[in-house]
């Protein structure tokens, strides 16, 4: 039933609470095992703190949260690809495994670039409003 469930379930979830528990297991695994996900979480938290200090407008908050969640979701997809590829090929070198992992990492890079652009476009005017 989700968090700390050791029943080795392979069938479908039967209740929302069960689905939610497994989703929280997934997030817990991301935070515990993925160093890059933790880094993005820290940067996202710092951006939120800066947004609070700079008193962003609702519109600016929308762009900032979109950018933060996009990076976290891209990192989530990257982790899924890595896990599935490792499940299929293990430690064997395979060109398609390389392509899948590199493309997934490229997706994270695109999301991070978008976040940098949004961060600059949102934060710079907000900083200038202080002067
Ligand atoms: N089985 C494989 N076959 C071919 N290339 C691979 C394989 N496994 C990994 N690679 C190459 O090594 C790189 C790093 O793979 P790895 O699974 O260690 O990702 P990672 O370092 O955890 O990535 P990230 O930094 O995104 O978390 C991949 O991007 C890919 O180029």
TrEMBL record:
Q: Which residues form the active site?
A: 75
The UniProt entry's GO CC annotations, sorted and at most eight, read: plasma membrane
CDD domains the record matches: UDPK_IM_like
Give the UniProt record's GO annotations in the biological process aspect: phospholipid biosynthetic process
- Give the binding site residues for ATP: 14, 34, 82, 101-102
Q: Where in the cell is it found?
A: Cell membrane
Keyword Magnesium: yes or no?
Answer: yes
The UniProt note on the cofactor reads as follows: Mn(2+), Zn(2+), Cd(2+) and Co(2+) support activity to lesser extents.
Q: Where are the transmembrane segments?
A: 41-58, 64-85, 106-128
Recorded hits in Pfam families, A to Z, give: DAGK_prokar (PF01219)
Q: GO MF terms on file? A: ATP binding; kinase activity; metal ion binding
Indicate the principal place this protein occupies in or around the cell: membrane
Which InterPro entries does the UniProt entry name for this protein?
Answer: DAGK (IPR000829), DAGK_sf (IPR036945), UDPK (IPR033717)
At which positions is substrate bound? Answer: 14, 75
Question: Is Transmembrane one of the keywords UniProt gives this record?
Answer: yes
**Binding residue positions for a divalent metal cation:** 34, 82
Cofactor(s) needed by this chain: Mg(2+)
Q: How does it sit in the membrane?
A: Multi-pass membrane protein
Q: Which UniProt keywords apply?
A: ATP-binding, Cell membrane, Kinase, Lipid biosynthesis, Lipid metabolism, Magnesium, Membrane, Metal-binding, Nucleotide-binding, Phospholipid biosynthesis, Phospholipid metabolism, Transferase, Transmembrane, Transmembrane helix
Question: According to its UniProt record, which protein family does this protein belong to?
Answer: Belongs to the bacterial diacylglycerol kinase family.
The protein, known as: Diacylglycerol kinase
């Amino acid at each position: 039933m989700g968090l700390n469930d050791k029943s080795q379930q392979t069938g479908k979830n039967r209740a929302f609470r069960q689905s939610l528990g497994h989703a929280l297991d997934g997030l817990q695994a991301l935070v515990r095992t993925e160093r890059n996900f933790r880094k993005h979480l820290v940067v996202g938290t710092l951006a939120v703190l800066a947004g609070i200090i700079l008193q962003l407008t609702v519109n600016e908050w929308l762009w900032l949260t979109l950018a933060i969640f996009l990076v976290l979701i891209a990192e989530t997809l990257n982790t899924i690809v890595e896990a599935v590829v490792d499940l299929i090929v293990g430690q064997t070198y395979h060109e398609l495994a390389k392509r899948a992992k590199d493309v997934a990492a490229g997706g994270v890079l695109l999301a991070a670039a978008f976040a940098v652009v949004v961060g600059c476009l949102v934060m710079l005017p907000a900083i200038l409003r202080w002067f």
